[in-house]
Design goal:
By secondary structure, the protein is mainly alpha-helical. It has helices at 14-22, 28-46, 52-67, 71-99, 104-125, 135-144, 150-175, 185-197, 201-223, 228-244, 250-262, 269-300. It folds into two domains: 2-46, no CATH class; 52-300, Up-down Bundle (Glycerol uptake facilitator protein).
Length: 301
């Protein structure tokens, strides 16, 4: 097995392999595992990250796939993303309440770390949030050079948003049933919702610009990742940044508000509608204007 792999550019100390070489017959499985791991590690070390142009081509292919989804596939994918987001929100409430006695700042960081696990679950499941669909579909529009896909992009965005909200609202109702979450978690979720609703329009808009840019950047970064582990790490980092700001993603923020209201927060429906409108605009500016168009220019230039 060792002879099958050449470590020409990977330094291996021959002394560390000699015990295995001497007992090759007796330790054959161990030798095979060792040599295989060394080969894989050498492969990773020698791999080259894709260029912006290559990432753009990947995005274009993925965008065409997303635009071409059947109605059932598209709605199911959006629905799954909605309730998966609420898993992250629930984890955030539990962690926030558990760490609150140690201080509000620590509780916020713990909640953000817990929420990020929901984003990891989203990525691993290949579910899709509304603004996660900014970069790839638009890359396919720019790559193909015609506006014929614009209708498909509008369909993708509209249905994803609606079913993100529907899936999330159903699970929001379930997790806020009295006794489902640990003591204090409902109160933490209500407090988080009231904090979100208490911000002014300008703060909400700027927060949404940053949130849209973060999620669109995640879409771009995932296309450059060639391993599941790298995708998990990137998803967790972006999820943590999104929640630690907190920066607004329209679906995540809307579901935070819905969960909070069901948990006892005093936020009226009109205020939720205002925040959703501001967040959609901000996410478009950040996700499309700031990130997507910049990467299109980078790839085309």
């Amino acid at each position: 097995m060792i002879a099958d792999c050449t470590f020409a550019s990977f330094p291996v100390d021959s002394d560390c392999l000699s015990p295995f070489a001497e007992g090759h017959r007796r330790l054959s499985p161990a030798v095979e595992r060792l040599s295989k791991n060394l080969c894989l590690f050498a492969e990773v070390e020698m791999s080259v990250a894709p260029t912006p142009g290559e990432i753009f081509k990947r995005a274009s292919r993925e965008g065409r796939r997303r635009i071409g989804q059947s109605l059932l596939e598209l709605t199911a994918t959006g629905f799954i993303a909605g309730f998966t987001t609420v898993f992250g929100i629930a984890a955030m409430g539990v962690a926030h309440s558990a760490f609150l006695p140690a201080g509000r700042e620590l509780a916020q960081l713990a909640g953000a770390a817990a929420f990020a696990l929901g984003v990891v679950l989203l990525v691993v499941q290949r579910a899709e949030l509304f603004s996660e669909n900014f970069f790839d579909p638009l890359a396919s529009v720019f790559d193909d050079g015609h506006a014929g896909l614009a209708g498909g992009v509008a369909r993708l965005w509209a249905l994803t948003f609606v079913f993100n909200a529907l899936g999330g609202a159903i699970l929001a109702w379930l997790i806020t049933v009295e006794g489902v979450l640990p003591h204090g978690a409902r109160e933490s979720l209500a407090r988080i919702a009231e904090d979100i609703a208490g911000r002014g329009h300008l703060a909400a808009f700027v927060s949404a610009v940053i949130g849209g840019a973060l999620v669109a950047s995640l879409s771009y970064a995932l296309l450059g990742a060639d391993s599941v582990f790298a995708r998990i790490v990137m998803a967790w980092i972006v999820g943590f940044l999104l929640a630690s700001g907190p920066f607004d993603h329209v679906v995540v923020t809307a579901l935070h508000l819905v969960v909070g209201v069901l948990a006892g927060a005093t936020v009226d429906t009109m205020r939720i509608a205002e925040i959703v409108g501001v967040d959609i605009l901000g996410n478009l500016v950040g996700g499309v204007g700031l990130v997507t168009l910049s990467h299109v220019a980078q790839a085309k230039g």
